[in-house]
């Protein structure tokens, strides 16, 4: 990490005690894995999911050692409607209800628009935007019948600002923002809140491997603190949005970055 001051990791305060949650793309590294851990620390029962079955089971085992009886896992590719339905059926079957969904699944990549293939464009949008849609729809159908809940989507600052080579990802994340706002209006009558976080650069080991030192330096220089975010710092904001402390917030996209525009 760069910067002069390291963030302090806050202990759990029971903000999600008794809640049940589904978190996608939560196989250990990154925001999804950090969110799963934070939810467990806050007292939630968590069903983690990811398309990478091996990494998912490994992380489930790791979390289960620390939080026995509070975590389970179901592999799910969010581009497959059958798998999405099975994921949410499993959540209700195991816990009897569903209180919180965190739609973290997304796919990036870098390509100049002039050279971008249809497959590159469609793949990023199918995982990042369509996957969020599928999971939001599944969650709303359950929460509508159970009388409430919370959905938190993972957007990105590139949904607001332009970045070369990111047309597909930016379009998908801008779509997640719009989906969040529209879903919030429709879901209000069911007692469901829908919000999103919009991080910029939250680094983890897998991302470090594919990020050049030059690009990392450029991106961190844009941030007010002169450093990238730790994934758990984004997870803290997701916890807030999932908790009762944000009870009057819906349809909001919360920047976890100084790069709002």
Mind explaining what this structure looks like?
With 261 residues, this protein is of the alpha/beta class. 45% of the residues lie in helices and 14% in strands. It is built from 8 helices and 7 strands; from the N terminus they run E-H-E-H-E-H-E-H-E-H-E-H-H-H-E. The protein has helices at residues 30-41, 53-66, 81-95, 118-146, 167-187, 205-209, 213-221, 231-242, and strands spanning 20-23, 45-50, 71-75, 100-103, 149-154, 192-199, 253-256. It has a 7-stranded parallel sheet with strand order 3-2-1-4-5-6-7, sandwiched between helices.
Question: Largest sheet, if any?
Answer: 7 strands, parallel
What is the typical, i.e. mean, pLDDT? 92
Q: What is the chain-wise order of helices and strands?
A: EHEHEHEHEHEHHHE
Strand tally: 7
- Given helix and strand content, the structural type is alpha/beta
* Radius of gyration (Å): 17 Å
Give the secondary structure arrangement, pairings included.
Layout: E1 20-23, H1 30-41, E2 45-50, H2 53-66, E3 71-75, H3 81-95, E4 100-103, H4 118-146, E5 149-154, H5 167-187, E6 192-199, H6 205-209, H7 213-221, H8 231-242, E7 253-256
Parallel strand pairs: 1-2, 1-4, 2-3, 4-5, 5-6, 6-7
